[in-house]
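Weekly sync, protein design subgroup
Attendees: M.S., D.O., the rotation student, P.L. (late)

Item 1: inverse folding check
M.S. brought a backbone from last month's batch and wanted to see whether the design step gives back something sensible before we order anything. D.O. pointed out we never logged the input encoding, so this time it goes straight into the notes. Structure tokens as presented (131 positions):
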């Protein structure tokens, strides 16, 4: 079965990423996702799909595991068709960096390019073809 990997309402994550970036500088933020090619996903099996993101130069976002309970973690949310189940989401390790606004505290962040891997599992009833 061939599934076109959806950007599937990454709006929640992108809005969060954009808001975090905007708050850092007051400039319009830029977080983007690379085009997602076709992937073959057999029915009733789990297939890992890489989602490649880029945070614009000069910006950063919190990792999935920020060091403070007061920081909002990056959290991927997707709306998939009802016959595809979203499995494990694998976030990359963040980088511990210091910033001028908090020079005594290291923040765990993503900057530049990073990849989030997600497992998709088409159900037995999925009809093979492009989605």
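Designed sequence read out in the meeting:
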């Amino acid at each position: 079965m061939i599934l076109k990997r959806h950007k599937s309402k990454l709006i929640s994550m992108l809005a969060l990423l954009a808001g975090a970036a905007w708050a850092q500088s007051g400039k319009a933020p830029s977080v983007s996702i690379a085009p997602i090619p076709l992937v073959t996903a057999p029915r009733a099996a789990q297939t890992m799909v890489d989602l490649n993101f880029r945070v614009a130069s000069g910006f950063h976002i919190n990792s999935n595991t920020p060091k403070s309970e007061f920081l909002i973690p990056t959290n991927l949310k997707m709306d998939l068709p009802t016959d595809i189940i979203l499995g494990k989401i694998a976030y990359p390790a963040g980088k511990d960096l210091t910033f001028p606004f908090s020079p005594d505290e290291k923040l765990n962040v993503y900057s530049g390019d990073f990849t989030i891997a997600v497992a998709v599992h088409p159900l037995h009833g999925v009809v093979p073809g492009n989605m």
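Discussion: The CA atoms of residues 2 and 40 lie 4 Å apart. Residues 1-24 have pLDDT under 50 and may be disordered.
Action: P.L. to compare against the previous round before Friday.
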